[in-house]
Design a protein that fits this description.
This is OBG-type G domain-containing protein. InterPro entries: Beta-grasp_dom_sf (IPR012675), G_OBG (IPR031167), GTP-bd (IPR006073), P-loop_NTPase (IPR027417), YGR210-like_G4 (IPR013646). Pfam families: MMR_HSR1, YGR210-like_G4. One of its GO terms (cellular component) is cytoplasm. Strands 1, 2, 3, 4, 5, 6 and 7 form a 7-stranded mixed beta sheet that branches. A 5-stranded mixed beta sheet has the order 11-10-14-12-13. By secondary structure, the chain is an alpha/beta fold. The longest helix has 21 residues. Helix 1 packs across helix 10 and helix 7 packs across helix 8. It is flat and about 95 Å long. The chain has 4 domains: 186 residues, Rossmann fold; 54 residues, no CATH class; 51 residues, no CATH class; 81 residues, Roll (Ubiquitin-like (UB roll)). It has 14 helices and 14 strands. The protein starts with 5 loop residues before the first strand and ends with a strand. The structure holds guanosine-5'-diphosphate and magnesium ion. Guanosine-5'-diphosphate binds next to helix 1 and helix 10.
Length: 445
């Protein structure tokens, strides 16, 4: 059955991996049971924020459109996993916290080879980079370190790890390749299957290189170029430039931005997100994760006083939030200035969104009843109560059939319907807003 996507956080020690992971996993939204059966110790569940199908105005159930009224389906959207708030859905996604990597990791430095092995099943990486320059390559405290170095050496550690594993066996690989008259693709697939590589990933890497010589004649530079092309395709990487709240961050960000394509970069301050969410839990502030605004008791009291001055007849209300001491008030003021006003948000939600974009993840909503989008059988009375209970994330170019296998397992499909009861072919490719609400009917057609 197709696996669920897995995104791994990598980086040197003290770059902020654990803080970033906390900021992605600890959501204030209501959380259901995890959809994943086994959660290993270094695995966690993050939440990807997406516009939910329930808020599409064109869907039956949301029509006729009423000006200013929320789409009626939104009020009945009750995800089994994650949450849906005002049409924004939090979809659970599995994350892997890889222990800190240091230069020389592929040779075993800092147990690096063991940690690299954890990456085998990752579909994408989030490289958490400390852009404050206050930690060196080993993660020790310093000042003025150039974090663009980390981007270079970490990528080469991953390449050298895969390369080392391949070269160890290269003699035997070559002999077998010649003996069974295998194609390059077949031989490499055998070698790279342990990294969860598909033949299309390996095929793309080989196509890009357009190599002329047969595999047994490859020199070491050619082998390295094959591994590099494979790694870049198998482990697409988002750079989470973390600690943007630090005064030294700007010049380091500017340097990295000159070296890396913009779709691979996200600026973030994980510690700011963790701090804000803690204050929300303690009733000090109002803050919606991902937004640029924080409201304190002082703000609410000021607003209430202004409102009362305009309409003196109404009684002035006081904010239910707790008052802040000077230290907290100053910290929030700094965070507003250094992070929220300058960058528009703490950035952590975009880190995950960007990784999902690199993978081309599409949200698909399997429903029992294509007329109501409910999960109950027609006529059971419950079919209208809850809509869009399920949402699965599938990779780019997945077909209706792929989704069917993921949702229904090996059960034979009679037919599949989408919005309006329209039948769809099993080889139709699903996309956002296209064949992404599906009802699978089991049995003989
Ligand atoms: N200024 C600042 N410090 C951060 C940020 N994120 C993490 N840190 C600090 O960096 C240190 C290492 O963080 P941690 O998450 O444990 O790093 P890990 O070793 O990569 O898991 C801790 O002292 C954090 O408080 C951030 O966004 N800004
Ligand atoms: Mg850690």
């Amino acid at each position: 059955m197709p696996r669920d996507p897995l995104i791994a956080l990598v980086g040197k020690p003290s770059s902020g991996k654990s803080t970033t992971l906390n900021s992605l996993t600890d959501t204030t939204a209501k959380v259901g049971n995890f959809p994943f059966t086994t959660i290993e110790p270094n695995h966690a569940i993050g939440y990807l924020h997406l516009p939910c199908a329930c808020s599409r105005p064109t869907l039956p159930g949301n029509q006729p459109p009423q000006p200013d009224a929320a789409p009626p389906l939104q009020g009945r959207c009750k995800p089994n996993h994650g949450a849906c708030q005002n049409g924004t859905r939090s979809v659970p996604i599995e994350l892997l916290d890889v222990a800190g990597l240091v230069p020389g990791a592929h040779q075993g430095k800092g147990l690096g080879n063991k940690f690299l092995d954890d990456l085998r099943h990752a579909d994408a990486l989030i490289h958490v980079v400390d852009v404050s320059g206050t930690t060196d390559a080993e993660g020790k405290a310093t000042r003025g370190y150039d974090p663009s170095q980390d981007i270079i050496w970490l990528r080469s550690e991953i390449i050298n790890w895969v390369l080392g594993n391949l070269l160890q066996k290269w003699g035997g690989v070559k002999r077998r390749h010649a003996a069974i008259k295998a194609t390059n693709l077949e031989t490499l697939q055998g070698q790279f299957s342990g990294y969860g590589a598909t033949s299309s990933i390996i095929g793309r890497a080989l196509d890009r290189l357009a190599l002329k010589q047969p595999l047994p004649d490859w020199d070491s530079a050619t082998i390295e170029s094959v591994v590099t092309a494979f790694v870049d395709d198998k482990f697409p990487t988002v750079l989470a430039l973390n600690k943007i709240d630090h005064p030294d961050a700007d010049k380091n960000i500017a340097k990295i931005a000159r070296l890396v394509p913009p779709d691979r970069l996200v600026l973030c301050s994980a510690i700011s997100e963790v701090f804000l969410r803690r204050l929300v839990k303690q009733d000090y502030i109002r803050y919606t994760p991902g937004s640029d605004s924080v409201t304190t008791r002082q703000d609410e009291d000021d607003d209430a006083a202004a409102a009362a001055a305009e309409t003196p007849a109404t009684a002035q209300t006081t904010s239910p939030l707790k008052p802040l001491d000077d230290k907290l008030a100053t910290r929030i003021e700094n965070l507003r200035d250094m992070v929220l006003y300058r960058f528009g948000s703490t950035g952590v939600n975009q880190v995950l969104t960007r990784a999902a974009e690199l993978l081309g993840l599409t949200a698909v909503y399997p429903v029992r009843n294509i007329g109501t989008f409910g999960s109950g059988e027609a006529g059971s009375g419950s079919e209208r109560a809850n809509v869009f209970r399920d949402c699965v994330l599938v990779p780019r170019n997945s077909t209706v059939k792929d989704v069917g296998r993921k949702v229904m397992g090996d059960a034979p499909l009679a037919f599949v319907e989408t919005v309006g009861g329209v039948r769809v072919a099993e080889d139709e490719v699903v996309g956002s807003g296209w064949c992404d609400i599906l009802s699978f009917k089991v049995g003989r057609a």
